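User: For my dataset I need records formatted as: sequence, then structure tokens, nothing else. Please produce one.
Assistant:
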Amino acid sequence: MTPLDKPLRRELHVDGRAYTLTVDPEGLKLTEKGRRKGIALAWTDLLNGDAALAAALQASVREG
């Protein structure tokens, strides 16, 4: 296997909108193309089962 030692970025399209997915040693981040803020998820949150909680907290911070 190749170690993940630097960010890996890929573009994807969801419902006609472009997003950038960044995978790095700390976790992953999904950002709408051309924007700086997005949804970040740490590997530890994903492994501990806290992924849904982390995503919900980030969404509530952005809305409120």
